[in-house]
Amino acid sequence: MEVEFDYLDTPLLEFSEQPEDLWTIRNAVAGVQIFGGIGSGKSSGSGKTLAYSYLENGFGGIVLTGKVDETTTWLKYAKKTNRLKDVVIFGATRPLDGIHEDFRHKFNKEYQFNPLSYLSEKKETSGKTANIVALFMSIIKAGDRISGMGGGSSNDPFWDRALQRMIKSTIDLLKLAQEGTTKKKTIDLLKLTQEETTKKKTFDLSVANISKVIRDTQLLLDDKKEGGGDYVTECLISAGNAAAQGSESTKRIFEAMDSYFKIDFGSMPENVRSSVLESFYAFADPFLSGLLADYFASDVEDDVRPEKTFGEDKIIIIDFPVKEYLQVGIYAQTIYKRLWQQAVERRKVDKTTKPVFMWVDEAQFFLSEDDMMFQTTARSSRACTVMISQNISNYYATIGGKNPRDRVNSLLGNLSTKIFHANNDYVTNEWAAKTIGQTRQPEMSMNMGDERHSTTMKKALQNQVEPQDFTLLRNGGKTNQFQVDGIVTVSGKPWSNGRNYIQTFFYQNEDEFFVE
Question: pTM score, two decimals?
């Protein structure tokens, strides 16, 4: 009986002519981690080979940018694979050296993507307040890692919970206040009619309005009446209007939120409140002016919706490179990455669903707990994660929080394919050797005496690949005929050599630019 072909078994790479050495979509959706020292050829060798394969097979996806030239690199890949028509660059317009004039106009467009508006418009669970709060906390933790504070605003979860509660109450207030503007009935809670309220203010869900509510609440506590407290007062009036005409669930939300702003916020110990406020302001300030305010605060443009990557196979390059924009670049890309991951997890998948990819070179900049959670289900979502970094020590240093090694190892355990290139980081090399594992190999020992010698042969556990072997792998360039050595291991895959790893090489050909 003829066996039906499984789409997941579609070959993407061939490491030899042997069928055991095919690398398939099934392997790709289980995730890839590439390690290699500076100048090892990891990006231009195995990285480029994978990128070409994904593009040639029509995958859409997102590209995060650590280096300034990452966007130009991917435009070269897209040109080579006839995918330029699918590329969308989300970022500030910049000179794109070498791009043919026929293509330049396509990429000199600036887009807007307001994550709060995007989440609010969703009818599924992604639009719930809890998901918006989770996005805020993810970004705040990313900022803490950048500033050297570890994986969160504090090692004590009390502070995180206090911050989460403040953000949740504020979001609930604005959502109800916005709903209240559509109600016909007016509720005069504080001797101010709903009609007067809506003439004065709008209650759109934005970082600016969330900040305004929190600052006004603090001003009321400080008895600063001049211009202080007006906005939060009007929000409460409009929210009350919505609650009075809403469901029992809406009424419960209003009561909890109303209690928070009128009682709980003010009853917090001063040191607790000031710490929570400072954590929030440190997060919010970049969104009130500068790059994040320019691109992430107003609208949601269709071309940069995450769904475009699997609805229309678009390749969205998040062009806010960390090397240029520093912390703000990490914020911007962390936001988009998380929302893309959620969008991919929501999509319906069947036997023929085409995979999408998330490309993260210099992955240490973007590492988060969200990636660990996402990778546990990425295979069922047909999401091909590719993470590239110099060494595992980068991950240990940047993920922060308690037990960073366990958290990093958890993530890497869910990236099924590991590719190791030349490296001088002994931590990475030892980890790689242990990952590939040991086998029983012949070991000879010799005993020498005054008159007699004896030789004993026995089998002992030894590394299949020793740590020092990774220091001797070829790193491309003319000296090595543009060949980059790599050692590849895939969870659960035996290779034609009978081992769980294969040593191979990747071509590192120089690409021409687009000038024709």
Answer: 0.83
